[in-house]
Amino acid sequence: MPHLSPTEEILEKLIAFPTISSDSNLDMITFMADMLEDIGARVKIMHDETGKKANLWATLGPDIDGGIVLSGHSDVVPVAQQIWSSDPFEMRIDNDKLYGRGTCDMKGFLAACLAVAPKYAARELKRPVHFAFTYDEETGCIGAAHLVQAIRDSEKKPAMAIIGEPTEMRVIEGHKAVCEYTATFKGLEGHGSAPDVGVNAAEYAVKYVSKLLELREALKLRAPDWSRFEPPWTTINIGKIEGGMAHNVIVGHAEVEWEMRPVHKADGDFVKGEMQAYIDDVLLPAMQAVHSSASISVESIGDVVGLEPMEDNEAKRVVMKLTGANQADLVAFGTEAGLFQSIGMSAVLCGPGSISQAHKPDEFIARDQLKACDTMLEKLVEFLV
Question: Residue 123, Cβ neighbours under 10 Å: how many?
Fold first, then answer.
């Protein structure tokens, strides 16, 4: 086994916790909390309603406003039905790459934070540094939403957040929102020989999808001049259509799973308003004219706010100085960053590893990426003392 750096030693331990989003993350949260308490951090464990998951909030330095948050999520995506070359929850080193579920997304950043924390604790900090490690980012940023609400309600407000998502240590100042929905159609089953007698839920689901595709084209014309996203407009994707049981049966139940990624909030409001009006004014009256109990319901599965690029962004300025970057970029994937921005904090993404490795079998992070992250976090102390 090659010699491991302090960050790599911690990462090896974090990988061994199988914190898949469907399962509890408490063992790993407790492990990290103990590490931070041992160096004198003020630690809070914030449980969810079930008591099986929790956020970790820990602080070093003075109890004042204006702190810097180092944020990352503790959960990982499943490994079921993926073919791995080795145990995904046992870190493996090969050719200067560290393999294991969560190595890049995003336990590498958490390990780097824990490794640098004793160095912060040894200094006389004039500005607090907060460690924010959340649950259920992969299923809608649920933990971060609860954490941000707690920050909003607190007396001491941090000024900025650095979210260590895998960006290959590039500075990222913006990403689109991610809004996921499931539309459920309940009609009236019957024999396929008499389609006018029943209410075919699949047919109305298809009409619903057709309206979404119509709006998708309209959104291309709404792309703002300032947008640097690729593509520059708000997108809509149909992820799944399900319904029916046989060729000769009128479909009584159907579902459509879809998402949109708004460039800005106005586009999201536009799509939701148009779709609700289409349901209320067109689809539902037609369904209930045949069967009064027919229904359409739309459930919000995840609604992750975007990170909007801002001219005045202290987090961007700080991290660009720390990394030596001369520009900030945008990414397509969603993160927790916009939640911090929504309560008046500046926020930026910068973390080790590549998003192209995330969620795949044989996920890995290059060792030099971790070293670069260590360097950035060690330099951060300049802004704390």
Answer: 12
Looking up tokens 């911090």 gives 340
User: In angstroms, rounded to a whole number, what is the distance separating the alpha carbons of residues 133 and 19?
Assistant: 13
List, in order, residues 6 or more apart from 38 with CB less than 8 Å away. Answer: none
Sole residue written with tokens 């590490």: 35
Strands of the chain (E only): list them. Answer: 42-47, 54-60, 68-73, 92-94, 97-99, 129-134, 160-163, 172-175, 178-186, 190-191, 235-243, 249-250, 253-261, 295-304, 329-331, 346-349, 364-366
Q: Is the pLDDT of residue 263 over 80?
A: yes
Quote the CA–CA distance of 336 and 347 in Å, as a whole number: 10
37's enclosing H/E stretch is: helix 26-38
Model confidence pLDDT, tens digit, residues 46-68: 999 999 999 999 999 999 999 99
Let me know: does 188 contact 202? Beta carbons within 8 Å. Answer: no
Which of 105, 129, 96 is CA-nearest to residue 19? 105
Residue pair 349/73 in contact (Cβ under 8 Å)? The answer is no
In this predicted structure, which of 82-86, 105-109, 272-276, 307-311 has the lowest mean pLDDT?
307-311
Mean pLDDT, rounded, of the chain:
96
Three-state SS for 227? coil
Pairwise CA distance, residues 258 & 265, whole Å = 18
Cα–Cα distance for residue pair 185/294, rounded to 1 Å: 8
- d(Cα 117, Cα 41) in Å, to the nearest integer? 9
Catalytic annotation, residues: 75, 137
Long-range CB contacts for residues 273-278, cutoff 8 Å, separation at least 24:
274/211, 274/215, 275/208, 275/211, 275/212, 275/215, 278/208, 278/211
- pLDDT per residue over 181-209, tens digit each? 999 999 999 999 999 999 999 999 999 99
In the block, residue with structure tokens 């009236």: 188
d(CA 276, CA 253): 19
Distance CA(261)–CA(357), nearest Å, equals: 22
